[in-house]
Each structure stands twice: as structure tokens, then as C-alpha cells.
UniProtKB/TrEMBL annotation:
This is 6-phosphogluconolactonase. Gene3D superfamilies: 3.40.50.1360. Pathway: Carbohydrate degradation; pentose phosphate pathway; D-ribulose 5-phosphate from D-glucose 6-phosphate (oxidative stage): step 2/3. It comes from the Eukaryota. Pfam families: Glucosamine_iso (PF01182). It is an enzyme of class 3 (hydrolase). GO terms for molecular function: 6-phosphogluconolactonase activity. Keywords: Hydrolase. It catalyses: 6-phospho-D-glucono-1,5-lactone + H2O = 6-phospho-D-gluconate + H(+).
Length: 376
């Protein structure tokens, strides 16, 4: 990947919003069906390797939702970076001997739009464009825009929205993809981080920012948060025919273990098929108590972006985009919005381990491909 994408003129670190704006075109969009540079006016990144045939080890696994005879042998391990199958796991722990159908991939699988920016700063500007577009569309359609924010490293990526006079923040309703069950003043609070980086700098009305209620046991905190969402009228938060809320935009971070929101690998909350908001009382990542939107809520959204920037995300990005895991082992692979669009926002550092020349035609259904397996 590092060889496949090169940036002839590295972008300098912007210190102002206008510099963010100047860099906002710096994307290379890699669509599911083809890989193409976006022209000279884009990042300057060049795809300079001839297309290669996909490795025979790729696309072995059919993205069916259930396997009639349980988990196929090939699912016992990941594929190695070389393309060879990793040894089958002998583990008796979660992921092998758990109820075999606790997790399933959603049927179908989406195309995913992967945007790779020259720098984290260009990615921040590109993300602002993405959100601004989603905001404009929603406000034009029904006069409101609902956006769910993750915590962690994602929050700093929101900086490109500050100072944008073309975004009508007065129509925004801000939710949290997940939240830690801590006081809002705590350094662990996702609300506190979002407030510091974005919400205090843009004119979103305070009553349209839905924060967790402090001081409740985690179960009650989740119920209370779900109640706040349920109270929103359909003009603000429409519902699907199955009564799932349709958020306009969900911004997900992804942990090095593949978790999104507070949905961790092989956990019951990750497998939940009911409920809008769940408590997590024993998160493997501190703090232990959290609340989280469920996968069905995330997958009912119109626009879902997985934002992963920096070298520290390179491994999980490669695993998530190029290696189909046992369902539940990489929760980010379960993100497949049914009626919406899925995007990944990367920079060169986080994309460094991808093997884009091998993303042959038709092979980027997510996760992995719909190519038939070599043997059934
Ligand atoms: O704990 C959390 O982690 C994830 C990922 O965070 P990152 O710092 O590794 O990017 C985050 O998306 C989630 O909202 C947060 O609560």
C-alpha cells in the first residue's frame, strides 16, 4: 500500500480552519468496484502499480449469514498477511465454543467507500465535508440533522467543522454512539471530549445535545438514554418500518481490537438484536461501565463513517477491510448499514498495510467479497 499510494507533495500541518479547507480535497476515494485516483486536483496521490490478480487465498469465505453445518473449517483462523491461512485455533474461549450463531453477518454486505487522505489533517477536512454534506441533505429534507459521535481519538477529527458558516448547527441533534458511565466533568467522559473539541465551539443548542444522565446505575443510565431518544419526534428522528431509529450520520472510531462504540469482540452486547441502548458493566477497556448504541441502531443509519487515522490503526484497518473474521471477532465488520452508506476515512498511515492493488473488481463487498468459495 505504501508503494501503491504516494504523495508527491506532502501537505503541511494546517493551523487554521481555512488551511483545513484548502486541504479538504485531498482524498483518494477507493470505491468498491474500482480503484482510481481522483485527479490531479485531488491529493496528488497516485496509484502507480499495475492491477494484480487477487491472491488465491483471498475471498475464500462466502458471506452467508449462517452456515448450515456450523462454522466452516476455514473460519477457525485468520489469514496471515502472506495470504496463507493461519493455523486453526484450538481455543475453547469466546469466539469458538460460544453459541455458534450468537453472531452473524448481516445478509448481503455493502459496498464500502474507502477514502484515503494524504495526511490526518486532510482527513479531518474531508470528514468535515462528509458531515456537512449529510447535514445539508437532512436539513433540506426535514429540517433536522441527527448525528451520533464516538469518543476516543475520533473527537479530535471533528475540528474541521469548527467555523463552518455553511453548516446550520441550530438544526443539529447530537447523540453519543457510546458513553462512559462517569460524571460529565470526568476526563473519561465522551461528552466532555466532544464539548471541548466541537460542541462549545459551534452553535448547537444545548438542549439538542443528548448527554448521559449522571449518577445512575449503568442499567438505568442506558434506559434513561434510550428514553431520551424515544422521546424525539419522527421529524427529528425518523423510524424504519421495523421501528429502528434512522440517524442521519454515525461517526465511529475503531479500537485496535476492532471494537466500535462500546461493542467489544465476542460480547453479548455486540450480538444484541434488540434494544436501542444497552448497558455495559464490564467493558474490557476502562472505564468498565458504559452505555452504547446497539448494532441494529448503527446499521439503520443513513451515513456511517468509520474513522481510523494514524499508524496505530493500520493493523486493525487491514484486518477489518481485507480479512473476514469469525463474526463477532471484529465488531467493526458487523457494521453494514442496511439502507445507508458505509464509508471509511483513513490517512496514509492507517492505510499503510492495505493491499489495494489486490482489490480486484467485485472483491470489495464488505466484509470481504461475494466471490464463491473455492470449495464448499
Ligand atoms: O472506548 C472507546 O473506544 C473507541 C475507540 O477509541 P480510539 O481512541 O481507539 O479511537 C471509541 O470509538 C469509543 O467511542 C470509545 O468509547
Amino acid at each position: 500500500m505504501a508503494a501503491a499510494l504516494r504523495a508527491p507533495c506532502a501537505l503541511s500541518r494546517p493551523s487554521t480552519v481555512s488551511q483545513f479547507r484548502q486541504q479538504r480535497t485531498g482524498a483518494v476515494a477507493v470505491r468498491a468496484q474500482k480503484v482510481e485516483a481522483q485527479g490531479a486536483a485531488a491529493s496528488g496521490a497516485v496509484l502507480d502499480q499495475p492491477a494484480r490478480q487477487p491472491s488465491p487465498a483471498i475471498n475464500l469465505i462466502q458471506p452467508v449469514t449462517r452456515w448450515p453445518e456450523g462454522i466452516p473449517p476455514a473460519m477457525g483462523g485468520h489469514f496471515m498477511p502472506s495470504g496463507a491461512a493461519a493455523p486453526l485455533s484450538q481455543s475453547k474461549g469466546p469466539g469458538i465454543d460460544i453459541h455458534p450463531l450468537m453472531f452473524t453477518y448481516p445478509a448481503g454486505g455493502n459496498d464500502v467507500a474507502v477514502q484515503i487522505y494524504d495526511s490526518d489533517f486532510a482527513a479531518v477536512a474531508g470528514l468535515a465535508e462528509y458531515v456537512a454534506k449529510a447535514s445539508a441533505e437532512a436539513i433540506a429534507a426535514r429540517g433536522a440533522f441527527t448525528i451520533a459521535l464516538s469518543g476516543g481519538s475520533l473527537v479530535k477529527s471533528l475540528a474541521g467543522l469548527v467555523g463552518r458558516s455553511d453548516v446550520d448547527f441550530s438544526k443539529w441533534w447530537v447523540l453519543f454512539v457510546d458513553e462512559r458511565n462517569v460524571p460529565l466533568s470526568s476526563d473519561d467522559s465522551n461528552y466532555k471530549a466532544a464539548h471541548a473539541e466541537l460542541l462549545r465551539k459551534v452553535p448547537v443548542p444545548a438542549n439538542q445535545v443528548l448527554a448521559i444522565k449522571e449518577g445512575l446505575p449503568v442499567q438505568q443510565a442506558a434506559t434513561h438514554y434510550a428514553g431520551q431518544l424515544l422521546e424525539l419526534p419522527a421529524s427529528v428522528l425518523p423510524r424504519t418500518a421495523d421501528a429502528w431509529p434512522v440517524l442521519d450520520c454515525v461517526l465511529l472510531g475503531v479500537g485496535p481490537d476492532g471494537h466500535i462504540a462500546s461493542l467489544f469482540p465476542n460480547r453479548k452486547e455486540t450480538a444484541a438484536t434488540e434494544g436501542w441502548v444497552l448497558p455495559v458493566s464490564d467493558s474490557p477497556k476502562p472505564p468498565a461501565e458504559r452505555i452504547t448504541l446497539t448494532l441494529p441502531v448503527i446499521n439503520a443509519a443513513k451515513n456511517v463513517a468509520v474513522v481510523a487515522l494514524g499508524q496505530g490503526k493500520a493493523e486493525v484497518v487491514q484486518r477489518a477491510l481485507e480479512v473476514q473474521s469469525l463474526p463477532g471477532a471484529l465488531p467493526v465488520q458487523l457494521v453494514q448499514p442496511a439502507g445507508g452508506k458505509l464509508s471509511w476515512v483513513l490517512d496514509q498511515a492507517s492505510a499503510a498495510k492495505l493491499r489495494i492493488p489486490e482489490w480486484a473488481e467485485g472483491s470489495k463487498k464488505f466484509p470481504r467479497s461475494e466471490n464463491p468459495p473455492k470449495s464448499a
